[in-house]
Amino acid sequence: MNKQIVNSMSSPFTGGMVYLVEDTEVQTFRKEKYSVHVRYYVCKDTGEQFTSEEQDEQLCNELYNQYRIRHGIPFPDEIRKIREHYGLSHSQITKIVGFGQNQWSQYENGNLPSESNGKSIAAIRSREGMLSMLESSRNQFDESTFSRIKKNILCASDMDCNDAPYFYFYGNSKRGVNNGYSEMNPNKLQCMVQLIVSKEKNGVPKTKLNKEMYYVDFYSYKKYGRSISGLAYRAIQYGPVPEHYETVYDHVQGLIKKSIETSADFEYDLLFCDSPDTSALSKEDINVINQVMSVLVDMKRADVVALSHKENGWINYKDHHNIIPYDEAYSLKAF
């Protein structure tokens, strides 16, 4: 348990001092047990506990994320993509899967499906699964609408068929605690890299960029319960690095590479980005990047490496060069 005074807050009960408590607890959700990170405030005078909306949302997201992974239930962005992939309206897809009115749209907005509904959603990721459910719901549509929907499905590909850019960036990675429970979106990843690099007006070596990426993603997880890039990070000798980082940076569009030679005949690359594309980033994403880069941009490469070596995420996983689970975001010292 970590407990510290919050100087910027007064108790809503007495106006006195407040502690911020951070701990790991086992909580029961839908009759199952999950280990989650909890954050709450304690009034120093009365000992009463209270939480903010942000803390409640973080806990809820962590429980939902773990439940989705355990039971194979798609995430909200995946649920939306299923509907859009087949060109269906909310009303049409609700009739096909047999859900109650407005349930599908609620799931797209973050509501957690039951296990049975979640498995039904997962089943229609494949074209065969979708066609099977459409046939079962044939009496819900007139003949013209049914034929049009069936044609759209037959023309669609399976959703698990990923294109080349996806594999350049993510390989065979799976969504879960090792990638920050985030959507693996090549466009969003490229926007993140471009914006970070653009802050480095004199260029940035990959060694420093690796640490900047790590801090941005893990700080995002600490604040919002999700990473930005969807990348996994590995603890190696010189600190945390994104998985396949060489391949990642080689395929990010909009980066300019300049080779620098030193007096000792050592050559390294600096990356530049003059016009970053931020269209795939949310306001929260951009704020996280700006916060992290306001601290790191003026630091030397060696200092950023040294900073990352103080983090538990590197210390606990460096010996065997293991993947760093995003749970370690809650122990970040720099942010």
Count the domains: 3
**Biggest sheet, spatial arrangement of strands:** 1-2-3-4
Poorly predicted runs are none
Indicate the proportion of strand residues.
Answer: 15-25%
| Portion of residues within helices | 40-55%
- How many strand elements? 9
Roughly how many Å apart are the termini?
18 Å
Please, how many helices?
14
Rg (C-alpha, Å): 23 Å
The biggest sheet amounts to:
4 strands, antiparallel
What is the H/E string? EEEEHHHHHHHHHEHEEHEEHHH
Oligomeric state: single chain
Q: By helix and strand content, what is the structural category?
A: alpha+beta
Shape: globular
Features:
335 residues; alpha+beta; Ubiquitin-like (UB roll); 3 domains; four-stranded antiparallel sheet; 14 helices
Walk me through what this model shows.
This protein folds into three domains: 2-71, Ubiquitin-like (UB roll); 76-155, no CATH class; 164-331, no CATH class. The strands form three sheets. It has a four-stranded antiparallel β-sheet with strand order 1-2-3-4, covered by helices on one side. Strands 5-9-8 form a three-stranded antiparallel β-sheet. The chain has helices at residues 53-71, 76-85, 90-97, 103-108, 115-123, 127-136, 143-155, 164-170, 186-199, 206-224, 245-251, 283-296, 301-308, 312-315, and strands at 2-5, 18-29, 32-43, 49-50, 204-205, 233-236, 239-242, 256-261, 267-272. The protein starts with a strand and ends in a 20-residue tail after the last helix. It has 335 residues and is an alpha+beta fold. The mean pLDDT is 94. It is globular and about 75 Å long. 30% of the residues are buried. It contains 14 helices and nine strands.
